[in-house]
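W.,

You were right to be curious about this one. When I first looked at the sequence I had no strong expectations either way, so I just let the prediction run and decided to look at it fresh. Below is the sequence, 261 residues in total, followed by the output.
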Amino acid sequence: MQFFDTHAHIGLIYDNPIEQFRVIQQAKQAGVTRIVSINNNLHDFKKEYTILKSQKGIYHAVGVGPSEVTTPGENWIQTIEESAGLPNVVAIGETGLDYYKQYGDKRSQIELFITQLDLAQKLNKPVIIHNREAGQDIFDILQDHIPDKGVVFHCYSEDAAYAKKVLAADMNAYFSFAGNLTYRNAKNLHDTVMNLPLDRIVVETESPFMIPADLREQKRTKPAMLVSTVRFLAEMLDMEMEPLAKQLWNNSCTFFGLPEE
């Protein structure tokens, strides 16, 4: 079986390149043979891209997260445009809105988000969305700025009704679930996955965060732990692991525009 970790902050697991390579090797040994490396700012993207560009099965997203709204960087739009053309850069992101920590102000966050959605359309890339307590604003913005290649709601945190509304709006949206899906009190996530079309679900580790419930003794999440989340999802959906893993793999490849083999 092959697994696809659609969202991992490899540079936050370890800063040391040797340790990062070890994490990637451990993932491959567990069957996690494709990983999308995520950064919240362009400085970290450049650093991690340079470190990881030779690693087979490692892909990249480039963007500015809401946490960087006050300091996106000089010539940041041009940097995203240039970086999106690099080998194995498959998405814009993560980008979105975060009203929980109140980075900057709402207007500035929204402007940053919309600019990157429009860039994704121009660059023909899908978008990885960060949403924290900003679901309605994100939905409203996407109505007018949805890129043709679609979006994925990473580390999905809304409820089943929100997912249904997004699907009804025909946004070419996918929904990504991390280790918090395995938490007993995550009823909104459990209800959501039970009511989603299987071809719209992908999985991620959100490494080094969101440790799966059965691995809580670990200090940080790593891509190899994705298998635990998939196993939990298989039990929820009353499916065998292998066909579910295959479906999730195909969904991920379709979203990021990658060959399945």
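Here's what jumped out at me. The two ends are 12 Å apart (CA to CA). And, maybe more interesting for your project: DSSP finds ten helices and eight strands in the chain.

Coffee later to discuss?

I.
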